[in-house]
Amino acid sequence: MDNLSDALEKLKIASTDSATDSVESCLDCLLKALANNKFMRSPCVEAGLIPPLVQLLNSTDQEVLLQTGRALGNICYDSHSLQAQLISMGVIPTLVRLLGIHSHNTALTEMCLIAFGNLAELESSKEQFASTNIAEELVHLFQKQMEHEKKEMIFEVLAPLAENDVIKLQLVEAGLVECLLEVVAQTVDGEREEDIAQLKTASDLMVLLLLGDESMQKLFEGGKGSVFQRVLSWVPSHNHQLQLAGALAIANFARNDGNCIHMVDTGIVQKLLELLDRHVEEGNVTVQHAALSALRNLAIPVVNKSKMLSAGVADVVLKFLQSEMPPVQFKLLGTLRMLIDTQAEAADHLGTNGKLVERLVEWCEAKDHAGVMGESNRLLSALIRHSKSKEVVRTVIQGGGVKHLVTMATSEHMIMQNEALVALGLIAALDLVAAEKDLVGAGLVSVLHKLLSDERSAPEIKYNSMILICAVMGSEPLHKEVQSLAFINIVSKLRAHENKTVSHQASLTEQRLTAQS
């Protein structure tokens, strides 16, 4: 059939008259035409073939359904705009219903799965999928499959769908987790390529389900859930993929204080430390990264910090100080920063570790890795702020860290600016003489002038900048710079600032500047 308008007419009739005998031959011809010439797709769309084809999905004839699905798939293949058109025409609920009715028909089932795989990539499809019983249908279908290829087809649909939090919970409630655990148990010792592939897909999907707050909490079950316990058993496994998934799962479970406190109290930290110890020398980078992520999250609640420090977390983490992998460096820094927050003794101990400070200063210059550079600066500042120790300040000065803290004060992130200013204030208060040369060389006074002159600077920034000005007045060269830049004019204006803390500090700073002018 060469004439598209003829095909359109026949399909329009067929879509409203299920008794039309020519519908199958018409679809057959259309599929052949599409198979032979990919440029036929646009004429099909322009001729208006999509609406009657969608209508034919209501047919009771399985062969018609199969051919219709294939024709739509062929026409809309690789076109997000046409796929979006199908979604807006309500094709998703129709296909889910067909999957439920014809799950015994292998060809129809595969056609539905291919369609789902394509449509699920579009964000606009997720809401429609969530309003159907797709989770139940896919889990039911998965439970029946024995062949690797068929399971892989279902996995390819599940992965994009599971990115949606509503569908995550639906999949958990439909029993997908039990299916995934079974796949893991069956393939963990397998050496065939398909076993290794299925193990990775199943464990990755498990981790993905745990990214949803509701689905994660449902599986945690107060730390007593059987699924939670099974996933924990993956960490000491000899299989790298399971170690990775287990560590990532713990990191995902550790997303609220209650879960973190329970996990630390039940000895999970020790499992993670043992895992890291196995990966120090030429270890698996993804496992290192995942285990450090889990430790970082677990260290967030205040009550966990001292327990984790006593367990030796800092010492194990420091073993990765020589890592050249930015993702590992980033998590290592974040874990140490979380551990020392409010922990003066630990901050003092780490802050006087010359090798650590030397490495931090080196990473503060890692311009190719903004995350590592930012975390290094923040940890350098945190060591000073939480220890308030002259020895730590000396170690940072000797290691060349002062200039990086001055640069950090110019960050676009207010929290980093503030952390830098507080650390610099402590340096000036505890050992101004030793830091003087570096503060002058880094242009501290000029930076403070800009921060106070900038109307966009937050009240905390203005306050801490004035505190720092007062702190450096004891240094002759810094004092001269303050006088040369006429700070008194800026500060006097800040006496009228709407923030009372800022205005009060402005009065005190003005008095100090006037007295020492």
UniProtKB/TrEMBL annotation:
GO molecular function ontology, one term from the record: guanyl-nucleotide exchange factor activity
Residue ranges crossing the lipid bilayer per the database entry: none
A single GO cellular-component term on record: mitochondrion
Keywords: Cytoplasm, Endoplasmic reticulum, Mitochondrion
SMART domains: ARM
UniProt KW Cytoplasm keyword: yes
Location of the protein in the cell: Cytoplasm, Cytosol; Endoplasmic reticulum; Mitochondrion
Main location: cytoplasm
Pfam families reported in the protein's UniProt record: Arm
ARM repeats: 48-90, 267-313
Protein name: Rap1 GTPase-GDP dissociation stimulator 1
Source species of the chain: Astatotilapia calliptera (Eastern happy)
The organism's taxonomic lineage, starting at the top: Eukaryota, Metazoa, Chordata, Craniata, Vertebrata
